[in-house]
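User: tokens in, sequence out, please.
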């Protein structure tokens, strides 16, 4: 390639420099816009932090443990500008550890300030475990509530593996290490060990439902066979306290817990997405697309779960 064939040198120097300056100006302009949005968002957050308010925590989709969410709940205990907390739930449940984490954290929060629970379409399994940590539970008449129980899921692919000529083997330190195998059914000692695991978690779940809802253990066990209930049925059974949504929860906080009227309700979890976040999410999405990367897939649950159905609710 000759000097004149070079695409850079074939452009007059002044034209190339003008184009280069234009690109840098555009980049600098975008950087300035992002910086201004970040500063504006930060200033808004600081002003909002000084305002007396009711905090809203939204728990949706499949529940797992989450350090960031846990820190947010712990911060609310010490926030003098938060008078009360509303937990908005729309979830089929999730891991038992995730439900326990929320139950314990919200129970600690309840000791410091009133906590009202609002179940929207769905509050089942680990999501119901979360709900009973509050002072009062509201749900719609036709919300889905309950599914008190625990399960361990296992896929036996032995027949498929034998059909295609594969065998699964391992060396283990004991008969229950890394069991169950993917190519074996749940039988004998392996099944019994897992049943003991499930029963222990189930007993704890039943005990806290009985304690928090003021039910006898036999009455709780009658409801704890995994069944789901409508809000109407749940009210009759003592699993919720009243029909309603956020407006009814606020009215209860004002009437029964002396929370001031007309306080704003501010979402603390998940963190509200501001303009800067939206810009960065868009740029990140474009970068992933250009790199040929797929979007993040669904959350996989491993181990003990307290889940009614796996479709995430957003």
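Assistant: Sequence out:
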């Amino acid at each position: 390639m000759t000097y004149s064939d070079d695409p850079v040198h074939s452009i007059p120097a002044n034209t190339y420099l003008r184009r280069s300056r234009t690109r840098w100006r555009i980049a600098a302009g975008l950087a300035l816009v992002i910086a201004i949005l970040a500063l504006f968002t930060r200033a808004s957050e600081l002003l909002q932090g000084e305002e007396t308010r009711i905090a809203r925590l939204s728990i949706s989709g499949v529940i797992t443990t989450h350090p960031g969410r846990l820190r947010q709940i712990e911060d609310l205990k010490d926030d003098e500008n938060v008078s009360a907390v509303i937990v908005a739930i729309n979830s089929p449940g999730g891991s038992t550890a995730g439900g326990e984490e929320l139950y314990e954290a919200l129970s600690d929060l309840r000791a410091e300030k009133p906590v009202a629970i609002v179940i929207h379409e769905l509050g089942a399994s680990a999501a119901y475990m979360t709900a009973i940590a509050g002072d009062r539970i509201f749900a719609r008449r036709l919300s889905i509530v309950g599914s008190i129980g625990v399960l361990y899921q296992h896929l036996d692919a032995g027949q498929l593996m034998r059909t295609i000529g594969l065998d699964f083997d391992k060396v283990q330190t004991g008969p229950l290490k890394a069991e169950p195998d993917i190519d074996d059914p749940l039988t004998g000692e392996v099944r019994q060990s897992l049943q003991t695991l499930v029963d222990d978690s189930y007993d704890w779940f039943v005990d806290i439902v009985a304690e928090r809802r003021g039910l006898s253990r036999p009455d709780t066990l009658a409801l704890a066979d995994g069944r789901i209930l409508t809000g109407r049925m749940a009210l009759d059974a003592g699993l919720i306290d009243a029909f309603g949504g956020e407006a009814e929860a606020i009215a209860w906080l004002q009437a029964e817990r002396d929370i001031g009227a007309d306080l704003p309700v501010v979402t603390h979890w998940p963190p509200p997405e501001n303009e800067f976040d939206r810009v960065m999410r868009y740029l990140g999405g474009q970068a992933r697309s250009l790199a040929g990367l797929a979007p993040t897939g669904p959350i996989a649950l491993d181990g003990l779960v307290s889940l009614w159905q796996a479709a995430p609710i957003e």
